[in-house]
């Protein structure tokens, strides 16, 4: 793709694009600065539902990127499926608890109470290290009692410097299998995240956006959900562009920005 004169918003994944386990990727901070200097808005779009908003802002601040109000997480997307006053079993981390609480729901966190009792309107699932048999049981009982099942993302793994660890999608899969219910999944590449991004960037059309990410099945597919361009970086989970349908390919974010502004 030649220079995108119409480009107004870049949707930027975090892991594999800005950093690897919070170790900055060469040139990424400068690339964000160059986008902004060219009048292009950057929204950081991540399937991480574990970190709170403040933690995401602080992590970006540490690599020199001001991002308050510009981070969109799968936890925020999940909370759009919750209504004020609902009773919600949150099987997830701090970020998910924060967003569902922020929505005005009554939140029960299974690993913070002695026993989970009563009916629920929804079970919301994301990555958390406390997941165990008792939490699976509580989720099963709640869904059998009529609660909606909502997952922040369907990612099977999460990258770390020591190799992948099970992601929120693997926890969700266990709950789906036990309940026999397919969850509404809200993060990339699914529609709730696309709706959330569109609501945060009103007036900007899909042809004026580009999603930059390192994973074709989430970031590339999310670009398709939105109907926008896809910029593939080779600095994360994908090391070769062979056979991949991307509009722009770069070794890293800096190489993508070289091509679009
Ligand atoms: Mg990524």
From TrEMBL:
SUPFAM superfamilies: HAD-like. Pfam families: Hydrolase_6 (PF13344), Hydrolase_like (PF13242). GO terms for cellular component: cytoplasm. Gene3D superfamilies: HAD superfamily/HAD-like (3.40.50.1000). InterPro entries: HAD-like_sf, HAD-SF_hydro_IIA, HAD_sf. GO terms for molecular function: phosphatase activity. Transmembrane segments: none annotated. PANTHER family: 4-NITROPHENYLPHOSPHATASE-RELATED, HALOACID DEHALOGENASE-LIKE HYDROLASE DOMAIN-CONTAINING PROTEIN 2. This is Unannotated protein. It comes from freshwater metagenome.
């Amino acid at each position: 793709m030649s220079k995108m004169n119409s480009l107004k918003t870049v949707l930027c994944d975090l892991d594999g694009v800005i950093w690897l386990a919070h170790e900055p990727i060469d040139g990424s901070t400068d690339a964000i600065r160059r986008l902004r200097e060219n009048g292009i808005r950057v929204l950081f779009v991540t399937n991480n539902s574990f970190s709170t908003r403040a933690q995401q802002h602080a992590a970006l601040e540490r690599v020199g990127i001001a991002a308050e109000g510009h981070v969109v997480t799968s936890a925020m997307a999940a909370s759009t499926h919750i209504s004020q006053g609902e009773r919600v079993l949150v099987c997830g981390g701090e970020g998910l608890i924060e967003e569902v609480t922020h929505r005005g729901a009554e939140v029960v966190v299974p690993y913070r109470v002695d026993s989970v009792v009563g009916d629920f309107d929804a079970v919301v699932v994301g990555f958390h290290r406390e997941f165990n048999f008792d939490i699976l049981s509580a989720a099963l009982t709640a869904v059998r009692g009529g609660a909606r099942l909502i997952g922040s993302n369907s990612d099977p793994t999460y990258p770390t410097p020591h190799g992948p660890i099970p992601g929120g999608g693997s926890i969700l899969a266990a709950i789906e299998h036990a309940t026999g219910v397919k969850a509404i999944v809200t993060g990339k590449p699914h529609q709730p995240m696309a709706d959330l991004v569109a609501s945060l960037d009103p007036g900007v059309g899909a042809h004026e956006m580009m999603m930059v990410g390192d994973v074709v099945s989430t970031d590339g597919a999310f670009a398709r959900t939105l109907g926008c361009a896809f910029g593939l970086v080779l600095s994360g989970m994908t090391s070769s562009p062979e056979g991949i349908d991307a509009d722009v390919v770069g070794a890293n974010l800096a190489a993508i920005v070289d091509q679009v502004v």
